[in-house]
Amino acid sequence: MLGATGSGKSTLLANMILDDATAGRGLVVIDPKGDLVNDLLARLPAGTAERVVVLDPQDTAPPPCLNILDGDDPDLATDQLVGIFRRIWVDAWGPRTDDLLRAACLTLLTRRTAPGKGPGQGPAVGSVPTLLDIVSLLTDPTFRRRTTAGITDPVLAGFWTWYTDLSDGARSQATGPILNKLRALLLRRFVRQALAAGPSAINLTDVLDRGGILLVRIPKGQIGEDACQILGSIVLAKVWQTVLQRARRAPERRPDAACYLDECQNFLTLPGAVEDMLAEARGYRLSLTLAHQHLRQLPGELADALSTNARTKIFFACSPTDAAGLARHVSPVLTDHDLARLPAYTAALRLIVDSADTTAFTVRTRPLPAAVPGRAQTLRAAARRHTAPTAGSGTAPSGDPRTRPAPPASEGHR
Q1: What is the pLDDT along the chain (414 residues), one digit of tens a residue?
Q2: How far, in Å, CA of 61 to CA of 389, rounded?
């Protein structure tokens, strides 16, 4: 879905999401601006209260945690995290940085040490590692010694032997590119709570399979552009990780689910090819809706992948330059002149129905229903009740960032 600001793109997105919620489909919405989630919360049916999960820095309560390192596939989790970081910071990422982060993740995920007797002495057996543990592993000798003790993998063991033998200066130089990026994230309280509070408090299998509604509101103006990209990319990575598990089920036992990405160019940073995700999602019965404003937001290869594999196309008014490139999808019914001059809330569509292309046509989108007074507050309160990190225990979970200090700032790592 492509369209300039004010053309009606967000209104159509919101209507589609409300329809999916009413139909009981599992939903994930990632919104880097914030208005879309606010519009949804004011209009979702009252009966969805127990299905809604909200991730929003505007909430005063700690957010539910979604830990990318919490899973049963260490290799996949490592590839996803390393791939996200590498693609976001492509200009400041080298082979040594990649090697350090990959080894740290695999060590934490595949090796569980004996329970420590005090803080900083290593994670407990079976405990879920977090991004905070990566910082500790690279900077705290006691934590590192206990965590790496007894590693049997010769490659990982050799890596930590090399790392330990480095001088303090060489070690600081090697870890600087990773630590300054992790600290930039984890020094933000909301991001630390959402990504590093311990085990995941959001069960994405329940969300996607049982009609849950996960609303991820991460406005760049509140949490920063890098944090927005990483948090949204991690949510998308966890969604895809959950969807891949559907391969174990027969096709008829895969319920319909949907994932909506507004300003999608911010989040398409997974290590795997986006075209593969688009091609495979259909078989797993996951609907992916990717919305953005213009083609220049996408790298050339990504734009080509979306052109080929995002088969249903919805175009609102766009620039003449974009219209010239997009017209081939809707010709001969519509021309580039038509695409560049569509009225507000009018879109050109080319759909896939029963695996076949339809003829292009235009539609005028309907306005959103009126907001229900007090509905947003009711849904937010319900979401806090059933996803609060302390629910059912009365205490913060192990590793909760309310009980763990942020990683110390380090001068010289810029």
Answers
A1: 999 888 889 999 999 999 999 999 999 999 999 999 999 999 999 999 999 999 999 988 889 999 988 877 888 888 888 888 888 887 778 889 999 999 999 999 886 433 443 444 455 445 789 999 999 999 999 999 999 987 888 999 999 999 999 999 999 999 998 998 888 888 889 999 999 988 888 999 999 999 999 999 999 888 888 889 889 888 988 898 889 889 889 999 999 999 999 988 888 766 555 667 888 888 899 999 999 998 888 877 778 878 888 889 999 999 999 999 899 999 999 999 999 999 989 999 999 888 888 899 999 999 999 999 999 999 999 998 877 654 333 333 333 333 334 444 443 333
A2: 9
Using CB atoms within 10 A of its CB, is residue 79 exposed (0-12), middle (13-18) or buried (19+)?
Answer: middle
CA 33/CA 215 separation, integer angstroms: 12
- Residue 185 is encoded by which pair of tokens? 């994230």
Q: Among candidates 310, 381, 361, which has minimal Cα distance to 46?
A: 381
Pull the structure tokens for residue 386.
């059933």
Query: Residue 141 corresponds to which amino acid?
Result: P
DSSP string, 153-177: -HHHHHHHHHHHHS-HHHHHHHHHH
* Range list of β-strands (E), 37-108: 52-55
- Residue 246 burial by CB count (10 A; 0-12/13-18/19+): exposed, middle or buried? buried
Element (H, E) at 413: none
Angle between helices 95-110 and 168-186 (to 10 degrees): 70
Asked if residue 40 lies in contact with residue 352, where contact means CB atoms within 8 angstroms, the answer is no
**Residue 276: left (phi > 0), alpha (psi -120 to 50), or beta?**
alpha
Contact at 8 Å (CB) between 347 and 365?
Answer: yes
- Between 154-165 and 141-148, two packed helices, what is the crossing angle to 10 degrees? 160
The pair of structure tokens assigned to 354 is 């029963």
